[in-house]
User: Which sequence fits this backbone?
């Protein structure tokens, strides 16, 4: 029989090939961690004995990696120049790895560069997965700093390139053997070529080296920390380790007692069990050996361990006297704090739920739950225990409604007062997001959905712009996904009423289109809902839970704009100096557009050019062209009325130094995209009424055509006898119970109201209120006159009226600003809100008046 047909021979060849591949992999692993290329062969020969007794499938590779890690941990001066690597950038990455402490270096090589599963890498290094991920995280941050790479994805791509270079390395076949360690007295016969080493040879190998290695650990059983009298500077000593271990035991016992819990209850919390496991690992021989020369790092790990087992209040107090903390440490603190308070919140709510019948519906003591026991004479033992220990839990009552008195929120006041949180760039946002989380339960919303607009804005800001990569940020992703789903496709009774979307939810959806990742979901939904009378949307039916995060990722990658109306408009930031500016850049466009007023001529024209074109038409006294440059609006008059009433706006080049458009200033308002020009004025103190004509918003809704937003404005400076006389006529007409013309100027209406208040003519004042305001008693107007400047004319310096419908509902919003001069010579402004009613402009009641 041909020997190639012998199954046993085939198996041997397969085993030989596998062993050869594994040898190359382990030698590269040693090289990656700094071993000289000509020493890697001897290393492999030495660790072969480790596999004795571990020939079962899947164990051989792991045992050899364990042995390799143990040997490397005892090898002096692990550093090579990377000359075997072909590409310069990959050599730089390799040398950056060499700068890491060995434990972080090996974790980074296995997990980040070589792409090993976290479970395999952790077992190979003799640590648990959590520590492996932490080591790799620290390594990643240091590599990013060393290589000057800020973007996480760019760094990981760089490490992937390094992996490819490492796989191309051919290490020397034969070199001088390494000096044998005492534990490695393995008797070797003359070796055949490496490819001839069958796996079965490992079974017969000596167990001498294996006896010198402890299980999955790097280190030897004989290891002991030095006493303080023998330790060098920076070393971890026996006394330090004993004191820290005692500190953990005492803190754990104190935290348990301050929470009012028995050991059985306390140990059931996941955070406590995790802390206990971490403590065992931290004080294991392998970990102590690993950190024997870095007492400072070990102390930092001990500080985190104390955070893990402390109460929420104790965690905050532990920071009270400490100094500045790096961002990554703050991130870890918040991760532990929020996870812990989440768990304690569930526990406390279950106690309160079980005792719900004893909780008073109204009590002044809900803000201080320890005193709440005074209102609960028959409190159960577990309720009394909880309320007595309340300050340690980091919680407060939500008090959403009487039937849900057992619901809680997080008390973040203590953390907000700490200097570390005040200086942290993102801590305030994280605290606010977690404060009221969760935002709903199985019964529905725990907060008003409209209040979540700012919450979602904060989430998006953190998820898109916050540069750190933390577990807290990952939890915000979960929050975001849940909240978006609940708002758009959650409980039917929360969103629909009589088969149609509730009016408040319609407004909420439109408001959320301010943010592109939500606009991508909601714009098609709203369009289809409007077409069906707010009853059905195919886009909503097809929406899946994970879609919100997929769209968010598109935004992160800069790919979302192309999917949105006008989202991919090529907007450019630009500043134009107006000194000696002659409009030459828009004269040709003005010549074409001024003849036909065809809006298609404006497609793809930059918004700054539309702005300049508008003011050039003003400069040329061309109101018709200015009219056709105005976006459609409910307030926009007919062309004839506009032409009849037109007055030139202030000359741009005579009143402003420069104008600027900033790309990042673009804002979506439902289907429109809006940008507000920035203008620097000749005069230092320019009032709102003077600035507004030179700073009209620019909007685009379709076909990438920018237009000037129409805003209705009126202004009166100082004493205005003509205006005052018109207002007195209006007042007398109202006093005679006559109706005013519907087009009566809002400034006339304002003057008439002020005079009615001054004269205490309640009937006239009430006539000038909108339909929804109702009638007000004389005392209301007396209080109004006495507590506000908005009465009389003696000190009135100016009045200005502004109205716009640039908002998500295209509803008219209007106000009159009254500018007074006080007796001290200062200025005081009052704003009166108006609504456009069938009778003309009327005043709305003012919040707080």
Assistant:
């Amino acid at each position: 029989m041909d020997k190639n047909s012998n199954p046993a021979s085939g198996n041997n060849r397969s085993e030989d090939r596998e062993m050869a591949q594994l040898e190359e992999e382990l030698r590269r692993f040693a090289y990656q961690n700094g071993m000289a290329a000509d020493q890697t062969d001897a290393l492999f020969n030495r660790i072969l004995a480790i596999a004795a007794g571990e020939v079962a499938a899947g164990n051989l590779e792991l045992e050899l990696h364990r042995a390799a890690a143990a040997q490397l941990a005892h090898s002096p001066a692990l550093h090579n120049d990377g000359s075997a690597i072909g590409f310069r950038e990959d050599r730089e990455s390799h040398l950056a790895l060499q700068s890491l402490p060995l434990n972080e270096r090996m974790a980074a090589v296995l997990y980040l560069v070589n792409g090993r599963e976290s479970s395999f890498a952790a077992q190979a290094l003799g640590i648990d997965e959590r520590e492996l991920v932490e080591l790799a995280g620290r390594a990643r941050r240091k590599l990013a700093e060393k290589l000057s790479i800020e973007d996480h994805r760019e760094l990981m791509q760089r490490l992937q390139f390094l992996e490819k270079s490492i796989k191309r390395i051919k290490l020397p076949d034969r070199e001088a053997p390494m000096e044998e360690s005492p534990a490695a007295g393995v008797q070797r016969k003359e070796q055949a070529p490496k490819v001839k080493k069958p796996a079965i040879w490992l079974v017969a190998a000596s167990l001498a080296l294996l006896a010198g290695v402890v299980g999955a650990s790097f280190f030897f059983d004989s290891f002991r920390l030095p006493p303080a009298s023998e330790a060098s500077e920076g070393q971890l000593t026996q006394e330090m380790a004993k004191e820290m271990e005692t500190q953990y035991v005492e803190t754990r016992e104190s935290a348990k007692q301050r929470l009012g819990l028995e050991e059985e209850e306390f140990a059931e919390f996941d955070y406590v069990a995790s802390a206990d496991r971490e403590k065992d690992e931290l004080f294991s021989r392998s970990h102590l050996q690993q950190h024997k020369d870095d007492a400072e790092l070990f102390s930092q790990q001990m500080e985190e361990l104390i955070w893990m087992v402390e109460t929420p209040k104790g965690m905050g107090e532990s920071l009270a006297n400490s100094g500045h903390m790096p961002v990554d440490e703050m991130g870890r603190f918040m991760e532990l704090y929020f996870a812990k308070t989440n768990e304690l919140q569930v526990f406390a709510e279950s106690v309160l739920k079980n005792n719900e019948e004893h909780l008073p519906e109204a009590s002044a003591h809900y803000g201080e739950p320890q005193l709440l026991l005074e209102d609960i004479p028959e409190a159960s033992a577990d309720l009394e225990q909880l309320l007595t220990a309340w300050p340690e839990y980091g919680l407060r009552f939500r008090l959403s409604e009487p039937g849900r008195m057992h619901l809680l929120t997080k008390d973040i006041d203590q953390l907000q007062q700490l200097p570390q949180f005040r200086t942290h760039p993102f801590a305030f946002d994280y605290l606010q997001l977690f404060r009221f989380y969760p935002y709903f339960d199985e019964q529905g919303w725990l907060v008003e959905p409209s209040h979540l607009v700012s919450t979602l804005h904060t989430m998006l800001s953190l998820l898109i712009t916050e540069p750190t990569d933390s577990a807290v940020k990952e939890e915000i992703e979960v929050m975001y996904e849940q909240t978006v789903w609940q708002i758009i496709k959650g409980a039917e009774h929360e969103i629909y009423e009589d088969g149609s979307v509730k009016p408040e939810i319609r407004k909420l959806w439109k408001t959320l289109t301010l943010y592109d990742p939500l606009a991508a979901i909601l714009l098609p939904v709203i369009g289809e809902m409007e077409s069906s009378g707010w009853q059905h949307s195919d886009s909503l039916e097809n929406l899946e839970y994970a879609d919100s995060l997929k769209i968010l990722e598109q935004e992160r990658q800069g790919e979302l704009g192309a999917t949105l109306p006008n989202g991919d408009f090529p907007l450019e930031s630009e500043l134009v100096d107006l000194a000696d500016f002659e409009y030459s850049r828009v004269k040709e466009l003005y010549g074409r557009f001024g003849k036909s007023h065809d809006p298609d001529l404006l497609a793809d024209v930059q918004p700054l050019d539309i702005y300049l074109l508008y003011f050039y038409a003003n400069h040329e006294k061309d109101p018709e062209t200015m009219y056709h440059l105005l976006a459609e609006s409910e307030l926009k008059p007919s062309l004839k009325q506009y032409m009849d009433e037109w007055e030139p706006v202030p000359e741009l080049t005579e009143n402003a130094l420069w104008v600027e458009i900033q790309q990042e200033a673009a804002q979506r308002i439902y289907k429109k995209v809006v940008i507000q020009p920035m203008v620097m004025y000749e005069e230092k103190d320019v009032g709102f009424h003077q600035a507004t004509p030179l700073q009209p918003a620019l909007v685009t809704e379709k076909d990438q055509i920018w237009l000037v937003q129409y805003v209705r404005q009126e202004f009166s400076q100082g004493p205005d006898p003509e205006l005052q006389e018109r207002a007195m006529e209006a007042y007398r007409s109202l006093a005679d119970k006559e109706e005013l013309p519907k087009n009566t100027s809002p400034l006339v209406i304002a003057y008439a109201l002020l005079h009615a208040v001054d004269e205490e003519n309640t009937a006239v004042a009430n006539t000038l209120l909108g339909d929804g305001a109702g009638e007000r008693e004389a005392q209301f107007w007396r209080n109004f006159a006495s507590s506000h400047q908005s009465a009389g004319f003696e000190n009135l310096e100016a009045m200005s009226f502004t109205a716009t419908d640039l908002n998500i509902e295209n509803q008219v919003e209007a106000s009159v600003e009254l500018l007074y001069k006080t007796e001290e010579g200062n200025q005081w402004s009052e704003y009166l809100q108006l609504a456009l009613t069938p009778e003309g402009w009327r005043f709305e009641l003012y919040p707080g008046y």
